[in-house]
Amino acid sequence: MKIRNPQSRFDLDIKKTDRVLEVGGGHNPHPRSNVVVDKYVDDNTHRSGDIKVLKNQQFMNADGENLPFKDKEFDYVICNHVLEHVENPHSFLKEQFRVAKRGYMETPSLLGEHLYPKKSHKWVLLEVDNKVVMVDKERISFPTSFDFGDLFLEYLPKASIGYKIMERTHPNLHTMRVEWEGSFDFIVNPDDKDILKYFEEPWTREMVLHYFPQRSLGKELAEATRAFTDICRSIIRSKVLKRV
């Protein structure tokens, strides 16, 4: 079942004694991963750089749809920006659920894919009513003519404190993040019109409020304060590390 929507891939419920697998660590593996697997060793089509393996990490060349591990061999599995690439999401997800007790899944959200689409992404995803919904881009003739990646992925996250606050107060705006135990509910290429409308129609105010429920002023202020505090801590940590 779905446990929660973490703030980021570093906001995970992983114990010190957990054995952690990462599927598709690519050029940016999670530092907590013990074992990292990747399907493509010499092909960077689906990632932004060469494969990187951190100290004390074991790397294996393996297909996420057919993992060479025993049932529940791992306590936790991390899958960060991989699901949108796969050919068979049913097989891929069932393998995650088979080899690990708990896990974390992160992909671009529907909005994120519109802002910075990637040709290597086969699927566009959105969490609707606690279900991860995947729709084949070709099925909905997904537009790819505009790409604002340099603005939303490079410039604003580094130059704008206001944008940094928005990222933290609405973490599922540009990304879809799900932490799960056992498994989570998912739908591939749904026929339900009430679900497809999120992918095919202009969003109404009702749809917006359904996906992003309005918070009280007090809650908004609390979230913004927490976000600003977190940003300040990050800035201080980065300056301290530069001096070391």
From TrEMBL:
Q: Which Pfam families does this one have?
A: Methyltransf_11
Q: Which residues constitute the signal peptide according to the record?
A: none
Record-annotated Methyltransferase type domain positions = 53-103
User: Does rRNA-binding show up as a keyword for this record?
Assistant: no
UniProt GO BP: methylation
Per its UniProt entry, which superkingdom is the organism in?
A: Bacteria
Residues passing through the membrane, by range:
none
Give one GO term, molecular function aspect. Answer: S-adenosylmethionine-dependent methyltransferase activity
Entry keywords, A to Z: Methyltransferase, Transferase
User: Can you say what this protein is called?
Assistant: Methyltransferase type 11
Can you name the source organism? Chitinophaga pinensis (strain ATCC 43595 / DSM 2588 / LMG 13176 / NBRC 15968 / NCIMB 11800 / UQM 2034)
